[in-house]
C-alpha cells in the first residue's frame, strides 16, 4: 500500500488503544493520513477535516497494524518429525541434546542458498501479512557462523519488499554449533562478528538464548557488552525452560524485552519493572511444547511490566504463522484480557522493538492500520482459525512485482 496525500478513512469503529488502558473506542470514527504516512487527525467522522480522497469504512473495525516482535522466520528445512517425537513423549530438551532441535535447522540453513531462504521466508511472511502484520521482527540464529548469520539477516531485510517494516535481530548466541566444544570460545566469535554485521546495516538489536541447554548469564553478558560497545539495544530469550536469572541480567543492560518467561522469578519481575523492559509472551511455544508452567502474568501486571505478544514463529517450538491465534491463546492459556492481548500485538509489541511511533491510532503516529470485518475488537481474540482481515494499510512500500 502506498502513501497518499491527505486521505480520509471514515465511518469505522476505531479501537485506538490510546493511553495506557482501555480499547479507546471511537464509534463512527475517522482517520486522516498525511502525505508523510502519519496519522494527521483521529476522531469522530462528523468532526473530520476535509480531504482530497475519502474512503468509507462502512462500519468496519479499525485497529493499529499488528506488530510481530519475535520471529525466527528465515531458515532451511522443517522439523515436523520432532513434533511426532514429542507426541511420543521425547522432550524438546532431549531432542536438542541428541543433536536435533536448533542444530538440525542450523544444518539445513547452512546448506540453503540465499534465494532458497528468501523464497521460503517470503511464503511465511505473506501468511503473517495476511493476518494484519505491518511490523515484523526477524532473528538470525540458525547460521551460527558469520557467513550464514549474515545471509539470514540479508534475507530478513529483503522481506521488507513485501510491504512490511522489518526489524532484524542478531541471535548468534542461540546454540553452540557442532564445530565448537568451548562455549566461551564460541561467544568470543559471536562478539567478533557483530561489528561487521552492524557496519553492513544488518542489525537493529541483539538477542541471546539464556538457558541450561544454551548459554549462561555470564556468557550472555559478554554478548551484551559487545552490543553496548556498538550502541545496539538488547533482548533476551529468558527463563523459557528454567530460571537462569536471565531477566535480571537483561534488565541490568536496559533490555528492550525479555521473551518467553515461563520460569521468571519474582525478583526477575521487579528487575524488569525497574528497567522498563517489556515482557514478550509466546503462547505458541508454550502450547506446542505442552508446557505447564505459566508465565507469572499476575505479577507482571501488578508490577506494571508492559506485556507484548508474538508468534515466535520457528520450525521447532512454535511453527505457527497466525498472530490472530496468539491473541486467542494469550487469553485462553495465559489469562490475558482480549484488550491486553491486542495491546501486546500492537503498542507493546512496538515497544519491545524500541518503536514508540506506532501501535496506537493517535495523531502523530505512523499510519499502519488494519480494517476488519468485526463489530468489536474483542472478536479478534474470541475467534480462532478465522481471519476477518479486510485490508492492511502499511506505510512500508511494496516493491513492484518481480523486484523482491
Ligand atoms: N527459544 C525458542 O522458542 C526458539 N529459540 C529459542 O531460543 C526455538 C528455536 C528452535 O527450536 O528452532
Ligand atoms: Fe524465539
UniProtKB/TrEMBL annotation:
Q: Which amino acid positions bind 4-imidazolone-5-propanoate, per UniProt?
A: 79, 142, 174, 240, 317
Keywords for this protein: Cytoplasm, Histidine metabolism, Hydrolase, Iron, Metal-binding, Zinc
- Lipid biosynthesis among keywords: no
Q: Which domain of life is it from?
A: Bacteria
Pfam families in alphabetical order: Amidohydro_1
Which residues does the record give as Zn(2+) binding sites?
70, 72, 237, 312
Describe the function of this protein: Catalyzes the hydrolytic cleavage of the carbon-nitrogen bond in imidazolone-5-propanoate to yield N-formimidoyl-L-glutamate. It is the third step in the universal histidine degradation pathway.
Protein name per UniProt: Imidazolonepropionase
Amino acid at each position: 500500500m502506498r502513501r497518499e496525500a491527505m486521505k480520509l478513512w471514515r465511518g469505522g469503529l476505531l479501537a485506538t488503544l490510546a493511553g495506557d488502558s482501555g480499547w479507546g473506542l471511537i464509534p463512527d470514527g475517522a482517520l486522516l493520513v498525511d502525505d508523510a504516512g502519519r496519522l494527521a487527525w483521529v476522531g469522530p467522522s462528523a468532526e473530520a477535516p476535509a480531504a482530497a480522497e475519502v474512503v468509507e469504512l462502512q462500519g468496519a473495525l479499525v485497529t493499529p497494524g499488528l506488530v510481530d516482535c519475535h520471529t525466527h522466520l528465515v531458515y532451511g528445512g522443517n522439523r515436523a518429525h520432532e513434533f511426532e517425537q514429542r507426541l511420543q513423549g521425547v522432550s524438546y530438551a532431549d531432542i536438542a541434546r541428541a543433536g536435533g532441535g536448533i542444530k538440525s535447522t542450523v544444518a539445513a540453513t547452512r546448506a540453503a542458498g540465499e534465494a532458497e531462504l528468501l523464497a521460503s521466508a517470503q511464503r511465511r511472511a505473506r501468511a503473517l501479512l495476511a493476518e494484519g502484520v505491518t511490523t515484523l521482527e526477524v532473528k538470525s540464529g540458525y547460521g551460527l557462523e558469520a557467513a550464514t548469520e549474515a545471509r539470514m539477516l540479508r534475507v530478513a531485510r529483503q522481506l521488507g519488499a513485501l510491504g512490511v517494516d522489518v526489524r532484524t535481530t542478531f541471535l548468534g548466541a542461540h546454540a553452540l554449533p557442532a564445530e565448537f566444544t568451548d562455549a566461551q570460545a564460541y561467544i568470543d566469535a559471536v562478539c567478533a562478528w557483530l561489528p561487521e554485521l552492524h557496519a553492513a546495516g544488518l542489525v537493529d538489536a541483539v538477542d541471546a538464548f539464556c538457558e541450561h541447554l544454551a548459554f549462561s548469564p555470564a556468557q550472555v553478558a559478554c554478548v551484551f557488552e559487545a552490543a553496548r560497545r556498538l550502541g545496539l539495544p538488547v533482548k533476551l530469550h529468558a527463563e523459557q525452560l528454567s530460571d537462569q536469572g536471565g531477566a535480571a541480567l537483561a534488565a541490568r543492560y536496559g533490555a528492550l524485552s525479555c521473551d518467553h518467561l515461563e520460569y521468571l522469578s519474582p525478583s526477575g519481575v521487579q528487575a524488569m519493572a525497574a528497567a522498563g523492559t517489556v515482557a514478550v509472551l509466546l503462547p505458541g511455544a508454550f502450547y506446542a511444547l505442552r508446557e505447564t508452567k505459566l508465565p507469572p502474568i499476575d505479577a507482571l501486571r501488578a508490577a506494571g511490566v508492559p506485556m507484548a505478544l508474538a508468534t515466535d514463529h520457528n520450525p521447532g517450538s512454535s511453527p505457527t504463522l497466525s498472530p490472530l491465534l496468539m491473541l486467542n491463546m494469550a487469553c485462553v492459556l495465559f489469562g490475558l484480557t482480549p484488550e491486553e492481548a491486542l495491546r501486546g500485538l500492537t503498542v507493546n509489541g512496538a515497544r519491545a522493538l524500541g518503536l514508540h511511533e506506532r501501535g496506537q491510532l493517535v495523531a502523530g503516529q505512523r499510519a499502519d492500520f488494519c480494517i476488519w470485518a468485526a463489530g468489536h475488537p474483542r472478536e479478534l481474540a474470541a475467534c480462532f482459525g478465522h481471519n476477518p482481515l479486510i485490508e492492511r494499510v502499511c506505510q512500508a512500500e511494496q516493491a513492484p512485482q518481480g523486484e523482491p
